[in-house]
Amino acid sequence: MPSESQPVRIDFAQMPSVEFGGSLIGRAALAVAIDELKKGAQEIGGKNSGPWVRKYLNGMAVEGASWCAGFVSFCFANNGHPMPFNYTVSARDLLNQFKSKNWSYELGDGIAPEPGDILVWWRNGPENWQGHAGITHCFCDGSLFTIEGNRTTKVAGFAYNLKTMTNLLGFGRVPVAA
């Protein structure tokens, strides 16, 4: 692990070391996310449009709809394991499904996100129905690294300082024996 004086460098195209944790199913979903990132998954032909977006929406919403939760669902549906939750294109629904299974956490719980955990943020206010979802790549030295769809026009990796995140609603972890 880097020291405080050395910046953390993450290669989003590589699976993080097992020392970072993560359940078998979560890490398998992260491998799918990494593969989609490497393939250059992105919007084509307009906002929230194109073959990648249609694939992630999975017929559950019309092209043009937000696709972040569909991307996360796709990664879990195509990771070689039984789908541990219902495919959804709603970030809030993802978190609610994890809450109903007692698989959800908040930052104040003293549990840090691990590779393959699903993160859900609020948009336009914590009580608003809108949200955003992504998959944890790793957590290291107070920095959270994610792979997300629909934060920009493509599947990409992002870095956050966990101490300054104000709109994270929580995260979900598929247990080892889901």
Which range best describes the helical content: under 10%, 10-25%, 25-40%, 40-55%, 55-70% or over 70%? 10-25%
CATH architectural designation: Alpha-Beta Complex
Classified in CATH, the superfamily is endopeptidase domain like (from Nostoc punctiforme)
| CA-based gyration radius | 15 Å
Task: Give the rounded overall mean pLDDT.
Answer: 91
Unreliably modeled segments: 1-6
Structural category: alpha+beta
Measured distance between first and last alpha carbons: 30 Å
Number of helices: 4
Q: Order of strands side by side in the largest beta sheet?
A: 1-6-2-3-4-5
The count of strands amounts to 6
Which topology does CATH recognise? endopeptidase fold (from Nostoc punctiforme)
The major sheet is characterized as:
6 strands, antiparallel
> What is the count of structural domains?
1
Task: State the gist of this model.
The chain contains 4 helices and 6 strands, in the order ααααββββββ.
Description:
The protein is of the alpha+beta class. It contains four helices and six strands, in the order ααααββββββ. The chain has a single domain, classed as endopeptidase fold (from Nostoc punctiforme). Strands 1-6-2-3-4-5 form a six-stranded antiparallel beta sheet. Strand 2 (118-122) and strand 3 (131-140) form a beta hairpin. It is globular, with a radius of gyration of 15 Å.
